[in-house]
Specification:
The complex is a heterotrimer of chains A (about 270), B (about 350) and C (about 300). By secondary structure, chain A is an all-alpha fold. Chain A is built from 12 helices and no strands. Chain A has 2 domains: about 5-55, no CATH class; about 60-275, MetI-like fold (Orthogonal Bundle). Chain A has helices at about 5-30, 35-40, 55-60, 65-95, 100-110, 120-130, 135-160, 165-170, 175-205, 210-215, 225-230, 240-274. In chain A, helix 4 runs antiparallel to helix 9 (about 175-205). Chain A starts with a helix and ends with a helix. Chain B has 2 domains: about 5-235, Rossmann fold (3-Layer(aba) Sandwich), CATH 3.40.50; about 240-335, OB fold (Dihydrolipoamide Acetyltransferase, E2P). Chain B has helices spanning about 45-50, 95-105, 110-120, 135-150, 165-185, 195-200, 220-225, 230-235, and strands at about 5-10, 20-25, 30-35, 60-65, 65, 80, 155-160, 190, 205-210, 210-215, 240-245, 255-260, 265-270, 275-280, 285-295, 300-305, 315-320, 325-330, 335. Chain B has a 6-stranded mixed β-sheet with strand order 6-7-8-3-9-10, sandwiched between helices. A 5-stranded antiparallel β-sheet of chain B has the order 13-17-14-15-16, with no helix packed on it. Chain B has a 4-stranded antiparallel β-sheet with strand order 2-1-4-5, covered by helices on one side. In chain B, helix 2 packs across helix 3 and helix 2 packs parallel to helix 4. The radius of gyration of chain B is 24 Å and the shape is elongated. Chain C has helices at about 5-40, 60-70, 70-105, 110-120, 125-135, 140-145, 165-190, 195-200, 205-235, 240-245, 255-265, 270-300. Chain C has about 300 residues and is an all-alpha fold. Chain C is built from 12 helices and no strands. The chains are: A mainly alpha (about 270), B alpha+beta (about 350), C mainly alpha (about 300). At the A-C interface, helix 1, helix 4, helix 5, helix 6 and helix 7 of A face helix 1, helix 3, helix 4, helix 5 and helix 7 of C.
Chain lengths: ~270, ~350, ~300
């Protein structure tokens, strides 16, 4: 098969696009390993020296493990709470007969469209009343505002995709709806549930506004907040900021590498249902 | 095994579609009943109503001596073989077979023996530890059957179980089904759109159209004495020819239709109707002739003649409709006339 | 109607509500209540720095103030302009990326991972990254522009009101083009390849095939992607906060950021709530119109 020159154009354009997508990440990694002085040179193109100074400062002086721990805890807890509860709701919406189903889904969708900023003040006051400001539950609760609708939306899509006759066969075999859910539906929906959990975790890990508003001190800052508040005394400490961004990106990159199929499955279920 | 009685059964879906209109049906214990009809006639809906997967808008369903109309599928003790087989993909064949027994808390030893017996009867012992994805279509079909048999239910419901098989396998599977039915003496309700399947498998056939049963009788009766033009044309392939009865000299009632099956047409140098041969399809053992009737008939007329020595295309022939093979139908209602 | 029969349906409906209840309760408590409070607050005077004034009901005064607030009007303009620039860019580039991902037979995994990384990275990380690259002292992009002579030797992107938008838009396009690409890729994969082959036999070249066959069939996916992106773009916050802080001055301040400043820094909860409510209503309406117009213009043009 001979390749016509014209056919190469989309390939070349594609490669260029990919390069543009990847370049900033590679640059971030490279720059984080450059000594501070080199960063401020006018042509900081090629790294000549490699240093781990910024990473050291990150963990020793700025105690960056604390935000990492906080982010892991909050994202993990939210996912653990949101996904199972959303799964039950989604199963009912996908399979069971009930009036007002469309209304429930429409409400869930409409609520998720609200700009986050508009619910910050009331949540702030409520959390302050409950003395939950600057605590882990104090972040998990607000995080449920977007992770529950997200979970319900995605999982309803996944459950709908499963063939109905498997549950019907189980019911004729004598299984109740709940038993059929446990024995037949959940094992088959496992990939979809995994996708939902991964996406929920990612959204929580990346969340900024709520973390910024509801945490008060470095002991509870999450990673995005901690990095943003890295303003140095005299100038932005770019070296450490970049090192922090690399550290913030690693879990994400690992998740993407390990689960890219699941992630794509989740995005396209959610999207085509829209 | 149990008898099934449906009384005044009706089902209208929430969107307004009337799927079943007033069906009265009695299936004897041990009978093999086939529900047959074109797509959309309601045969699958009727099956699902019996199973409990749909709830009727009116009427009663009695299985054995129990009114199960308000019972969920779990409580009806029926087994169903789905068109897609619906095997649990994440379980082994053995676990698939045993799932119904496990849910009903059957004693493990009893369950194991039953599974072994059924596996032997269906020749699937070698597959017991495999997953459905690793099986061929024919193997999956047998596992689906096995799952139903193992349950020893009151009746079997089969929803087009052969339609996903290769045509070559289908004949073999049909024979196996007949053999199983004889051995088990089971009550079977079988849904298909293939009239040949219906004719070869059924003890009785129920021909359905638009949510109602047009005729229910043993296959040969439906073939020989169709109760209206719909049944006459649906059963038997190629379909029965229908011509205005005046062509064969029957004047009353006016507008009546005369029917003759292609196999029963007599061709000769003399006869009641003149026709021209348009196309000849030699099939080896016999030939199909497409005829254009001289008095302009409405539809293409088919005749099947044994052998290959037949009038060629373009030839003029005469058709006779033997009286004992001829059917008469009312022109307006389509109902059979005696 | 046989009432005994509907008991099966009743049991099912009861189970359904039982399963839905926990999720619904959480959503109502955690989202609906605060939204209602915000709506309530918008109708009251609620300034945390002036607690002695109480929280009197003032009707639509907050909204009137918002309508006359030049900073709010500017913020609206910024937000809409940003959305109108970046979303079409993302759609076009995303389409290109999707076509390429669809055509790639080898290295599919590599392509997908490369496409997912920018999307998966925290927005603030992306923001910092692009802030860094445009920085007058350390930024590689800034340096490249200077080297290519496109800007003056001491040009600082973050000092010029218009130029400051470049890093923000660049960051947003960089981050969300892959997301759009994935949505469109799913749409591409549902198109029957036989259609393209039939067109090829009819003599249509690749460009013509793309325009007359692929593109029309992609419209549902395009509309969905456009709707999602439009809604997200109108809620711009993280990027603006981190890349420019809304500056210089308030030249790159979108509505969400202005609301945030009003609420969390100036502590004017009443007025800030009115800003949020207005922003939500306007963005919602705008997004609806955008999607309708987009969908109708494309399908209308074909019929």
């Amino acid at each position: 098969m001979s390749i016509r020159p014209v056919a190469l154009v989309p390939a070349i354009a594609g490669v260029l696009l990919l390069a543009v997508l990847l370049f900033p990440i590679c640059w971030m990694l490279a720059a984080s390993l450059m000594p501070e002085s080199r960063l401020f040179e006018s042509r900081p193109f090629l790294p000549t020296a490699v240093t781990f100074e910024h990473y050291r400062a990150l963990f020793d002086e700025r105690n960056f493990l604390v935000p990492v721990r906080n982010s892991l805890l909050v994202s993990g807890l939210t996912t653990l709470v949101a996904v199972p509860i959303a799964a039950l709701c989604a199963y009912a919406l996908a399979r069971l007969r009930m009036r007002g189903k469309g209304l429930v889904l429409a409400c869930v969708l409409a609520i998720s469209m609200f700009p986050q900023i508009s619910i910050v003040p009331p949540l702030y006051l409520i959390l302050r009343e409950l003395r939950l400001l600057n605590t882990y539950p104090g972040l998990v609760l607000p995080y449920l505002t977007f992770s529950m609708p997200l979970g319900v939306w995605l999982l309803t899509g996944f459950f709908r995709q499963l063939p109905k006759d498997l549950e019907e066969a189980a019911m004729l075999d004598g299984a109740t709806r709940m038993r059929a859910l446990r024995d037949v539906v959940l094992p088959l929906a496992a990939p979809g549930i995994a996708s939902t959990a991964i996406l929920t975790f990612l959204y929580c890990w990346n969340e900024f506004l709520f973390a910024l508003s509801f945490t008060l001190g470095p002991d509870r800052y999450t990673v995005p907040v901690a990095i943003t508040l890295f303003r140095g005394r005299y100038q932005v400490p770019w070296g450490e900021v970049l090192a922090a961004t690399v550290v913030a990106t690693i879990p994400v990159a690992l998740l993407v590498l390990a689960c890219q199929r699941r992630i794509v499955a989740g995005l396209t279920v959610g999207a085509t249902k829209g | 095994m149990a008898a099934i009685v449906l009384t005044g059964l009706a089902k209208t879906f929430p969107n307004g579609h009337v799927a079943i209109r007033n069906v009265d049906l009695g299936i004897d214990d041990g009978e093999f009943l086939v529900l047959v009809g074109p797509s959309g006639c309601g045969k699958s809906t009727l099956l699902r109503l019996i199973a409990g997967l749909e709830t009727p808008t009116a009427g009663r369903i009695v299985i054995g001596d129990v009114d199960v109309t308000a019972h969920s599928p779990q409580l009806r003790d029926l087994a169903m073989v789905f068109q897609s087989y619906a095997l649990y993909p994440h379980m082994s064949v053995r676990d698939n077979l045993g799932y119904g027994l496990k849910v009903r808390r059957t004693d493990r030893a009893v369950a194991a023996k039953r599974i072994a017996d059924v596996a032997a009867a269906l020749d699937i012992q070698a597959l017991l530890d495999r997953r459905p994805a690793q099986l061929s279509g024919g193997e999956r079909q047998r596992v689906a059957l096995g799952r139903a048999i193992v349950r020893q239910p009151k009746a079997f419901l089969l929803d087009e179980p052969l339609s996903n098989l290769d045509p070559a396998l289908r004949a073999q599977a049909r024979a196996e089904l007949r053999r199983l039915h004889r051995t088990l003496g089971a009550t079977v309700v079988y849904v298909t759109h293939d009239q040949e399947e219906a004719m070869t498998l059924a003890g009785r056939v129920a021909v359905m159209r638009n949510g109602a049963i047009e005729q229910m009788a043993p296959p040969l009766d439906v073939y020989a004495q169709p109760v209206n033009t719909f049944v006459a044309k649906f059963i038997g392939a190629p379909a029965m020819n229908l011509v205005p009865a005046t062509l064969v000299g029957i004047g009353t009632p006016s507008g009546a239709l005369a029917g003759i099956r292609p196999h029963d047409v007599v061709l000769g140098a003399h006869g009641q109707i003149r026709a021209t041969v348009e196309v000849v399809e030699p099939r080896g053992h016999d030939s199909v002739l497409h005829l254009r009737l001289d008095p302009p008939g409405v539809e293409p007329f088919l005749a099947i003649i044994a052998g290959s020595a037949v009038p060629p295309a373009g030839a003029h022939v005469f058709l006779t409709l033997p009286v004992d093979r001829r059917h008469l139908f009312d022109g307006r209602t389509g109902a059979r006339l005696e | 109607m046989n009432h005994r029969v509907t008991s099966i349906e009743h049991a099912e409906t009861r189970l359904a509500w039982l399963l839905v209840a926990p999720a619904l309760t959480i959503i109502l408590l955690v989202s609906l209540v605060p939204i209602a409070v915000t709506g309530w607050d918008a109708l009251h005077l609620h300034d945390l720095r002036l607690p002695w004034l109480g929280q009197p009901f003032i009707g639509i005064d907050n909204f009137v103030e918002a309508a006359n607030d030049p900073r709010f009007r500017a913020a609206l303009l910024h937000t809409v302009a940003f959305a109108l620039i970046s979303v079409p860019l993302e759609l076009v580039l995303g389409l290109g990326l999707a076509v390429m991902m669809h055509a790639a037979t080898r290295g599919r995994t590599f392509v997908r991972v490369s496409a997912l990384l920018p999307w998966a990275i925290p927005t603030v990380v992306a923001a910092l990254l692009w802030r860094f690259m445009f920085d007058v002292q350390t930024g590689i992009v800034a340096a490249s522009f200077r080297t290519l002579g496109l800007v003056g030797p001491a040009f600082d992107w973050f000092v010029h009101p218009r130029a400051a938008w470049f890093p923000i838009i660049a960051a947003d396009v960089w981050k969300t083009t892959p997301f759009v690409a994935i949505l469109l890729l799913a749409g591409l994969q549902t198109i029957d390849p036989a259609l393209g082959e039939a067109a090829e036999m009819d003599g249509a070249g690749p460009v013509r095939r793309f325009i007359t066959i692929t593109l029309p069939l992609l419209i549902p996916a395009l509309v969905v992607a456009a709707a999602f992106r439009m809604l997200d773009a109108l809620r711009l916050f993280d990027l603006a906060y981190v890349v420019t802080g809304g500056g210089p001055g308030s030249a790159t301040e979108p509505v969400s950021l202005y609301a945030f400043i009003t609420l969390m820094q100036r502590l004017r909860f009443g007025y800030g709530s009115a800003l949020s409510v207005t922003a939500f209503l306007l963005t919602f309406a705008f997004a609806l119109v955008w999607v309708r117009v987009l969908g109708r213009s494309i399908t209308g043009a074909r019929s």
